[in-house]
Amino acid sequence: MSEIRHNWTKEEILTIYNKPLMELLYDAASIHRLHHDPNTVQVSTLLSIKTGGCPEDCGYCPQAARYHTNVEGNDLMSVQQVKAQALRAKSSGSSRVCMGAAWRNVKDGEEFDQVLEMVRTINKLDMEVCCTLGMITENQAKRLAEAGLYAYNHNLDSSEEYYKEVISTRGFEDRLQTIDNVRKTNVTVCSGGIIGMGEAIEDRAGMLVALSTLNPQPESVPINALVAVEGTPLEDQKPVSIWEMVRMVATTRIVMPETQVRLSAGRTEMSREGQALCFFAGANSIFAGDKLLTTPNPDVNEDMEMFKLLGLNPQKPFIKKMQPQTVEASNSQYQALGEKPKWSRPEHKIERNEVAKVKAKAIK
Ligand code: SF4
Fold this sequence. Notes:
The protein has about 375 residues and is α/β, with parallel strands linked by helices. Helices cover about 35% and strands about 15% of the residues. Strands 1, 2, 3, 4, 5, 6, 7, 8, 9 and 12 form a ten-stranded parallel β-sheet that branches. The protein has a two-stranded antiparallel sheet with strand order 10-11. Iron/sulfur cluster binds near residues 54, 56, 58, 102 and 134.
């Protein structure tokens, strides 16, 4: 029951997902207790260090330049701004800062050097540092590792089959390639997905096959419920029910017993009772702070009240893995290579939100 398997099939995962709920919860909670302290939940703070203007076309994302949303773009934050936010996050109980930049892929140059400096700065605050910057090469992964990066986030989003219904500007295999590049370093992998994008339950299972058959499995797996943002192609999607979220969390816990399962976007729609069920089903990480990149999230004080109510404690940093050493830029072994990697641009098309486009033109 507690072994780590890398050969899960879609059929097996579907059988787990569709079990009677009480049985599913019991199995997931039992596995959870074998691998984790059930009263400890890791708290991460997500910072959008560069917002909006992204050239990609992820159908769920308000930061894609081609959609017409209310997101205001921002240039890359300064190292000092990031440090101030990290200190605030630390004082409110976060052990990890995850920095997100709305880029297709990382390009060597001044901006990446600035991100490396942010990584060094946060690592020196004795916090775990995570980045989500789009696709990265092996050399860039090594430079991040040297700076003291603890985790790299790169979500698979959905099953390989459904991926192309949501994103047309890159392929599923590009995601796997970036994860593989990160795996060539000692940086841990954070990779999960989103439910509620119109996918079938088979696609949810397909995504869990893709994640659980990675060897090693990702150290953290964020499970997001779609926040349907006006102006994106997925604006009309109905919210997922709490029961779907609980089933997804429980199934993730069962097929990836050691991973940290993170309740991510969509928590504002969940009651405390609903979140408590998710923790019982094996979720042991949350994103704190009133914004998740650009979408709303519960206030950190509300979360701490909920922790108190449920008897949960925030996890200290570096419990799972030692703090990485920080190498200063001047001592770096890995210099910028100025690579121009050929990430794919699949030909398939996704349906654009023409209504939003017309609406936005009319407002202008
Ligand atoms: S999810 Fe990331 S890559 Fe996709 S459009 Fe948004 S910012 Fe760009």
